[in-house]
Amino acid sequence: MKGIALILSLFVGVFTYAQNDVKIVKQGDMYKVTYFHENGKVAQTGFIDADKKMQGTWIAYAPTGEKKSTGEYKDGKKTGTWYFESNTNSVTQVDYGTDSRVASVYQLKSDKSQLADSDTEE
């Protein structure tokens, strides 16, 4: 558990800037990790494995509670299609290929349907 606490403290420094609370729940051989903004709303949520690598769906939220990004990790690396919402309410689709390298980037319509459709677990 010490190792997981250490890696999570690193995630806080790397992935967040205004979060003050982390919730970790063991689910089978994985750990569901939820970071919170200072206002108490969820900042991001996802899973890490016993090797402390991010796995599966990760979702990030603005302090207002609106979804900002969603995508998949495999063995600690971004994979597949990710969606990012900008401050102008447009959605950018980023496809990741080998070794988390960006394979393609698309600007989608100015709606949030892609973010809403890709929400698999909150």
Task: Tell me what you see in this structure.
- This protein is an alpha+beta fold and 122 residues long.
- The protein has a single domain (2-117), classed as Histone H3 K4-specific methyltransferase SET7/9 N-terminal domain (Single Sheet), CATH 2.20.110.
- Helix content is 16%, strand content 51%.
- The chain contains two helices and eight strands.
- An eight-stranded antiparallel beta sheet has the order 1-2-3-4-5-6-7-8.
- The radius of gyration is 14 Å and the shape is flat.
- The two termini are 24 Å apart.
- Mean pLDDT is 81; it is low at 6-14 and 116-122.
In short:
Keywords: Signal. The protein has 122 residues and is of the alpha+beta class.
Sequence-ordered SSE layout with sheet pairings:
Elements (H helix, E strand, L loop, with lengths): L1 H14 L3 E9 L2 E8 L4 E8 L4 E8 L5 E8 L2 E9 L5 E6 L5 E6 L5 H5 L5
Antiparallel strand pairs: 1-2, 2-3, 3-4, 4-5, 5-6, 6-7, 7-8
Unreliable runs: 6-14, 116-122
Tell me the number of strands.
Answer: 8
Distance between the termini: 24 Å
Residue share in β-strands: over 45%
Overall form: flat
CATH class: Mainly Beta
Number of domains: 1
